[in-house]
TrEMBL record:
SUPFAM superfamilies: P-loop containing nucleoside triphosphate hydrolases. GO terms for cellular component: plasma membrane. Gene3D superfamilies: P-loop containing nucleotide triphosphate hydrolases. InterPro entries: AAA+_ATPase, ABC_transporter-like_ATP-bd, ABC_transporter-like_CS, ABC_transpr_LolD-like, MacB-like_ATP-bd, P-loop_NTPase. PROSITE patterns: ABC_TRANSPORTER_1, ABC_TRANSPORTER_2. GO terms for biological process: lipoprotein localization to outer membrane; protein localization to outer membrane. GO terms for molecular function: ATP binding; ATP hydrolysis activity; transmembrane transporter activity. Belongs to the ABC transporter superfamily. This is Lipoprotein-releasing system ATP-binding protein.
Length: 235
């Protein structure tokens, strides 16, 4: 690798190159979802991804986060080419390097807000005391600290999603992937919670690829990409 290429690798947190994905390949009802997608996200950069329904954004995020495998192309995270890696290596990268946020919070209902942020760290072999301290620190940053002992059912929708943000960042990932992270909230709450998310991302120094249909929210990011008919087109 040349010095220039090595510098590019070190600068990029996420690199997606020539990624394609087709479901039911070779069958009459096959669907070509991604058609040679190229995306790069620099270290510390927040990139917005806007797309109409059915354009393939969720598939793209799943591939970027190593939850799905492309038919062709490659995905590099923090300079590591994940093509051909086994399940164990992909799982290890997801646990240590990638945080996920979805439209619905998916918190564990039987556990408190604090426990929901502690548990991913315990799964990553973080000592319990250290995990609890980081969990509380994150919850306080997003304004949910006083309600850390409450279960999700006792929290508002905005509070639940803030806890989900903290859970995604619990293991100090370098890359955050978010799929309509405020899409389940009313407009006023959505704006407030999104600002909380952006503040947390900036403070933690994360790279992020955030899918949203809200153009006003997308405008708050460093750069905006548009996915349409399986390709990246001018936003």
């Amino acid at each position: 690798m040349s010095e220039a290429e090595n510098e590019t690798v070190m600068r990029e947190m996420l690199s997606i190159q020539g990624v394609t994905k087709t479901y039911n390949a070779g069958k009459p009802n096959q669907v070509e979802v991604l058609r040679g997608v190229d995306i790069s996200v620099a270290r510390g950069e927040v990139v917005g991804l806007i797309a109409p329904s059915g354009a393939g954004k969720s598939t793209l995020l799943h591939i970027a986060g190593l939850l799905d495998v492309p038919d062709a192309g490659k995905v590099e995270i923090a300079g590591q080419d994940m093509a051909g890696r086994g399940d164990r290596a992909r799982t290890a990268m997801r646990r240590a390097g990638v945080g996920f946020i979805y439209q619905f919070h998916h918190l564990l209902p039987e556990f408190s807000a604090l426990d929901n942020v502690v548990l991913p760290q315990l799964a990553n072999a973080v000592p319990e005391r250290e995990a609890a301290e980081r969990a509380m620190m994150l919850l306080e940053k997003v304004g949910v600290g006083p309600r850390a002992s409450h279960r999700p059912s006792a929290l508002s929708g905005g509070e639940q999603q803030r806890v989900a943000f903290c859970r995604a960042l619990a293991n100090k990932p370098g890359l955050l992937l978010a799929d309509e992270p405020t899409g389940n909230l009313d407009p006023d709450t959505s704006d407030l919670v999104f600002d909380v998310l952006m503040g947390l991302v900036r403070e933690e120094g994360l790279s992020a690829l955030i899918a949203t249909h809200n153009l006003e929210l997308a405008a708050k990011m460093d750069r905006v990409l548009r996915l349409d008919a399986g390709r990246i087109v001018p936003a």
